[in-house]
Amino acid sequence: MKISSPAFAENAKIPKVYSKLGGNQRPPLEISDVPADTKSLAIVCHDPDAPGRDGFYHWTVWNLPSKTTEITGESLPADAVEGITGWGRPGWGGPQPPFGTHRYQFYVYALNTTLDLPDSTKPKELIAALTPHIIDQAVLTGKFGVLDVLRRG
Q1: pLDDT band at residue 116, thresholds of 50, 70 and 90?
Q2: Which residue of 25, 80, 91, 152 has the fewest C-beta atoms within 10 A of its own C-beta?
Q3: Are 90 and 83 in contact (CB under 8 A)?
Q4: In whole angstroms, what is the distance from residue 111 CA to residue 69 CA?
Q5: Sorting pLDDT into bands at 50, 70 and 90, what band is 149?
Q6: Residue 148: what pLDDT?
Q7: What is the dihedral sign for C-alpha 134, 84, 115, 141?
Q8: How far is it, in rounded angstroms, from Cα 122 to Cα 57?
């Protein structure tokens, strides 16, 4: 399985428009080579460089149809559920690192089931619920730094 973005390459800078300092748009993602026995997909965006023991979660979404090949910034499939992020609410919350350049890891999980979880589900609860059901997974890492944005004006 693979996850990529037409907006940024692996280990490349995430454009400002996807950050809290820009338009806070959800970046477009492309998913391919999903195992045939997948029942649903889940995506978690995590910043492992954020202060604190567990980093910071910028987005969680689950119950994406197994045939999903792209996620756009505008909409999600009807049955998809977005959970609570580190920002304390559901939906995308873009990068805004307090210092330096941080890594933003977009994990996609192929699951052997759909998840019966409310949109009030927090990241650790989601991860605990999906872990026993993972068939395959992939990760895309982007980088974002506040100083990089400020230098460009």
Answers
A1: very high
A2: 152
A3: yes
A4: 15
A5: low
A6: 62
A7: negative
A8: 9
The pair of three-digit structure tokens given for residue 95, joined into one six-digit string: 């990068």
User: Tokens at residue 117, please?
Assistant: 């979880």
Which residue in the block uniquely carries the two structure tokens 């910043």? 47
The Cα 27–Cα 110 span in angstroms is 20
Distance of CA 144 to the CA centre of its chain: 14
Task: Give CA angle at 142 (79, 125), nearest 5°.
Answer: 45
What is the DSSP code string of 91-144?
Answer: S------SSSEEEEEEEEEEESS-----TT--HHHHHHHHGGGEEEEEEEEEEE
List CB contacts of 78: < 8 A, sequence separation 6 or more: none
What is the Rg, in whole angstroms, of the alpha carbon atoms belonging to the chain?
15
For 87-102, what is each residue's pLDDT tens digit?
999 999 999 998 899 9
CA–CA separation, 5 and 142 (whole Å): 9
DSSP state of 5: -
Please tell me whether residue 39 adopts helix, strand or coil conformation: coil
